[in-house]
Amino acid sequence: MSLLELFVDVDDFCKFFLPVWERLLLGDGTRRRLRKGQLTVSEIMTIVIYFHQSHYRDFKFYYTEYVCKQLRSEFHNLVSYPRFIALLPSVLGPLSAYLRQQYGHCTGISFIDSTTLSVCDNHRIHCHRAFEGLAERGKSSMGWFYGFKLHFVVNDCGELLACRLTSGNVDDRTPVPILCSRLYGKLIGDKDYLSQPLFEQLMETFGLQLITKIKSNMKNRLMNLIDKLLLRKRSIVETVIDQLKNISQIEHTLHRSPVNFLVNVIAGLIAYCHQPKKPSLNINRFQPALIAYP
């Protein structure tokens, strides 16, 4: 998506969302003047999202060397870099609502997984204070980390269906019922989601069939051939994680503010949703047979 197309889409959303959002905001009873800034909310959101679509790895260099010099004709009222960083918390609410608007539609075949979001190097955990009380130590297949977990669900077309952020020590199965409130058909996960109570809860509440592999110390069980084939295609989730971290850049360990950390993660997820080509299984024509229960 080009810069112009991105701005038009964001600006159309802000024209509808901001008036409603401002009426619903809670105040402390005192009247305050709502002075307009040099940059509009849609311009700030566009700059942040476009960073995750670019090839820049450092936001300060991106803003000072690219936006302020090469995009001056597109944004006439640019502010200094410190002022722009101070404005980022003001777009957290609109970005969250805009991300929800970019969610795809459930096709009956969904894949669930989680990925770690470290906020500092393991050697600096003892002196890290920016996320004190929020981030926690956790362990993944890659080892110990300090930070958060991003839990998400994608369909067979690679479209994001739901996501949730938790601290690093939360079990992967905990946020599953919340993530699956809009799903139907089959949900494919790895062994971390293996749980008979969770399977029964999803089936009774949403009519959703949870499919996972069994552990090596468990008795073998009969499984539908279609379910076995879908388990082999679970690598689509790993491709999504790779794109989120290496293209959309949702993870780095230089955050100094929890709010700006959330802005960075949400903007990266939005940038992924705008990708024209996403990991896909290309099985839409066989969808009715795949979502049928055994």
How would you explain this protein's 3D organization?
With 294 residues, the chain is of the alpha/beta class. The protein folds into two domains: 3-26 and 35-101, no CATH class; 109-255 and 281-290, Nucleotidyltransferase, domain 5, CATH 3.30.420. It is 40% helix and 15% strand. It is built from eleven helices and six strands. Strands 1, 2, 3, 4, 5 and 6 form a six-stranded mixed β-sheet that branches. Strand 5 (185-188), helix 7 and strand 6 form a beta-alpha-beta unit. The chain is globular, with a radius of gyration of 21 Å. It starts with a helix and ends with a helix.
Task: Tell me briefly what this model is.
The protein has 294 residues and is of the alpha/beta class. 40% of the residues lie in helices and 15% in strands. Strands 1, 2, 3, 4, 5 and 6 form a 6-stranded mixed beta sheet that branches.
